[in-house]
Specification:
CATH class of the largest domain: Alpha Beta
Structural class: alpha+beta
Radius of gyration: 40 Å
Number of strands: 6
Shape: rod-shaped
Helix content: 40-55%
Number of domains: 2
CATH topology of the largest domain: Nuclear Transport Factor 2, Chain: A
Strand content: 15-25%
Length: 170
């Protein structure tokens, strides 16, 4: 016959055999399983928390990226803001603006306008066109300056117009 010695479970103090105590680290079978479940439950909760943090950061990054893309898209649309102008209308508006600015410069022969249409902001409201840009030209002292201007004109015919306003920041 086997001689079993008994010890107390570390948690519930019930009597367990030494063999069982050795097998379950000093706990009875029920307390040891409960400890495993609690331990696994804590691990699961920690994993869920980590997944939650990662998911939250990912959502935040998506929101920030979306706001940035929308902002950049709106900024680009405002800069170009051509209200559906054709290339012909854009070219004509730029040509009119250049001519009117030259007429208002102290040294029109020194004028150097931007070559890229991206440097011009053109808006159209009905028959009224507004062109914003800059020109590099000599001032009365012969110094080349970058001068901002706004020209507003109304189209009165296919190739005729009336100037409403010319502002040259000289």
């Amino acid at each position: 016959m086997e001689n079993n010695e008994y010890v107390s479970c570390k948690k519930c103090q019930c009597e367990i055999t030494e063999k069982e105590a050795k097998r379950y680290n000093g706990y009875c079978r029920n307390c040891y399983k409960g400890k495993e479940y609690i331990s696994n439950d804590i691990k699961k909760r920690k994993n869920i928390e980590i997944i939650g943090y990662v998911f939250g950061i990912l959502i935040l990054m998506i929101i920030i990226t979306s706001i940035f893309v929308i902002y950049m898209s709106n900024e680009k649309m405002e800069k170009i803001h051509l209200n559906g102008l054709t290339d012909e209308e854009k070219g004509y508006a730029i040509a009119v603006a250049k001519e009117e600015v030259r007429n208002n410069l102290k040294s029109p022969s020194s004028s150097d306008f931007p070559s890229s249409s991206d440097e011009y902001t053109i808006t159209k409201d009905g028959d009224i066109y507004t062109v914003n840009s800059y020109v590099e030209a000599d001032n009365s002292f012969g110094t080349k300056l970058k001068i901002n201007y706004i020209v507003q004109f109304t189209m009165t015919g296919e190739e005729t117009y009336v100037v409403n306003n010319v502002i040259v920041d000289e």
